[in-house]
Every structure is written in C-alpha cells, then in structure tokens.
Amino acid sequence: MGATTCAAVEEADGLELVARLDVGDDVAAGLKGADVAVVFSVPATVLEHVLACVEAGVHAVVGTTGWDDERLAAVRSALEGSATGVLVAPNFAIGAVLLMEFAAKAAPFFESVEVVELHHPNKVDAPSGTAQHTAHAIAEARRAAGSAPIPDATETGLDGARGADVEGIRVHAVRLRGLVAHEEVLLGGPGEQLTLRHDSFDRVSFMPGVVHAVRTVGSRPGLTVGLEHYL
After folding, report:
1. Which residues belong to any copy of the Dihydrodipicolinate reductase N-terminal domain (predicted)?
2. Cys bridge to 19: 30, 102, 120, 135, which one at CB 3.0-4.6 A?
3. Catalytic: which of 119, 136, 172, 198?
C-alpha cells in the first residue's frame, strides 16, 4: 500500500512527494517539510505514528485498521485546540464506501443481516476494519429504525462458527491466497435475499480515495472516521 500510494501521489497534479518512510525510519525527521502524511503502517504502531503527525502539525490520512474507542479517544485528545486534521478510513475504495452506505440504508428493511469479509492471508487483523465499520453502520441504522434483534436459534456450536459479534451483527472473516480485499453484506427476509458485494482486485482501487483525502484533510480539522464524510 505504501509503494502504491507513493506512485499515486507522484502522478497526481498539484501534489509533491517529500518523503518515503519504512520500518525503522525516523518518523519525526521524515515529517519535516510535509503538509500531509499518509499512514499505512500496522495496528501495533499506528497510534504512535499518528500522534507524531499531530505533534508535528502534519495532517494525517490513515488507512491502517485495528482502531478501537480508546485509541480514537487518544487522537481526539491530542487534536484538541489544533487545526490539524486526521482521517481514519477503514477503506479508501469508492465502491466499498458506497457498499457501506447502501448496506446501512437497506438493513432496516430485512429481518437478517450478516457480513462476510475476504482478504489475503497476510492481513494481520480480523475482522477487517471495513467489515467492522460496516457492521457498526448497520447496527446504528437498525437501532434508529427500531428493528427487532436478528433471529438466531443457535444453542450449541464450535467457537467462532457464528463469526464475531459486532453490536449484534455477525461478521465472518475469510483468509485465502489470491484474494486482495472483498466484502459481502447478506440481507435476508421471508422469501428473498439481497447481496451487496464489493471487490478490490488491485491496490490501485484505493488510490482515488487516498488522493481525494490528501487534498481534503487540511480543511477538516479534528478527527474524522470514514471516507464517506469527505465525499
């Protein structure tokens, strides 16, 4: 993702790539002269990297997943009184953002909803940030509509057989060689099923969203979670 992002920035009109940082590099030194940093690191170090950006007054566009409420709260706290903007985006593919929006709109109309995310086996977190973000949006939409709990009569089963429980929405993770990044939302009602699916076959699919975020983040101080707020 880092290499693909560097190429996209170099090809974009009006943007200049001033540094490439990899594992072991001095982040603070690399941020000098930058207006925006694009962070595609790993969950174990991403908070440290984002806080370094905030301390340096550099806007941050963050694609690393693995965030929780406590980590997001730490970023919000660091940004208090600052004009710096930070975007944490579970997915930069425009199609994936649309899938999440469509799923939230459709969810209250169906009795059952489940999410399946499919990724390459080198991905270090499960379920994906995209799937969790999707499930949160679905759960919020169903609460707002007064939807009944999703039916599930399971009484016995192997650990993990029903996937992760994200606010009452079941999320299943597949790790398979040959995949890149894929998500399905399955919505079921009496006698019918609606399937929403997005496939990223190449990392270039994320670049229009990344470049748009780089151009936009400077005008959005504070913390924003989700690319949909920039579209």
Report:
1. 1-92
2. 30
3. 119
